[in-house]
Design brief:
This is C-type lectin domain-containing protein. With about 170 residues, the protein is an alpha+beta fold. The protein has a domain of about 120 residues: Mannose-Binding Protein A, subunit A (Mannose-Binding Protein A, Chain A), CATH 3.10.100. The protein contains two helices and eleven strands.
Length: about 170
């Protein structure tokens, strides 16, 4: 009996459309195809049209992280929807650090914006977050409630995984 489990991952994957037109359906799939606008050394997620690469920072320094992504032709990835947040949870499930640095900066009025000035409208804050103070950046952190967002110092002594989006 076919269980629909992917043998390459520990999680089940489902979708609304078959990758080849027949067979088992998948939710999450990646491709390195010449027909997409994603360089071969990066990963492309078709459902979100998301081209990315994963890196590590130790210690966390958001300025250096953004410079690194920019030097590669990208930007620090923003999580702008529940679908994107769910995808981050799936593809980063076996990450080497409990923190994932993502785009978003707190403004003086307490609102959150992306680097280009776009206001953020989707959040997945851990209860009690964000805290006030000098913690103007965002990390996704593994918690007892699952992966939740927390505000963090933009220069932090801990390590994180970060995603450059292209």
């Amino acid at each position: 009996m076919d269980t629909g489990e992917c043998v390459l991952h520990s999680n089940r994957f489902y979708s609304n459309e078959p990758p080849s037109g027949t067979g088992v359906y998948w939710k999450y799939f990646v491709a390195t195809s010449a027909t997409v606008t994603c360089p071969a050394e990066h990963t492309y997620y078709r459902q979100l049209k998301f081209c990315y690469s994963i890196h590590e920072s130790d210690p966390i320094d958001f300025t250096q992280i953004k410079t690194f992504c920019s030097s590669r032709g990208g930007e620090l990835a923003a999580v702008s929807s529940v679908e994107m947040n769910n995808y981050f949870k799936e593809f980063l499930a076996i990450r080497p650090h409990i923190r994932v640095c993502i785009a978003g900066e707190e403004q003086l009025d307490g609102s959150w914006e992306l680097e280009d000035g776009t206001s953020m409208s989707y959040f997945n804050w851990y209860p009690g977050q964000p805290e006030s103070g000098n913690q103007g950046c965002i990390v996704i952190k593994a918690t007892s409630l699952g992966d939740m967002w927390m505000d963090a110092s933009c220069a932090y002594s801990r390590s994180c995984v970060f995603v450059c989006e292209y």
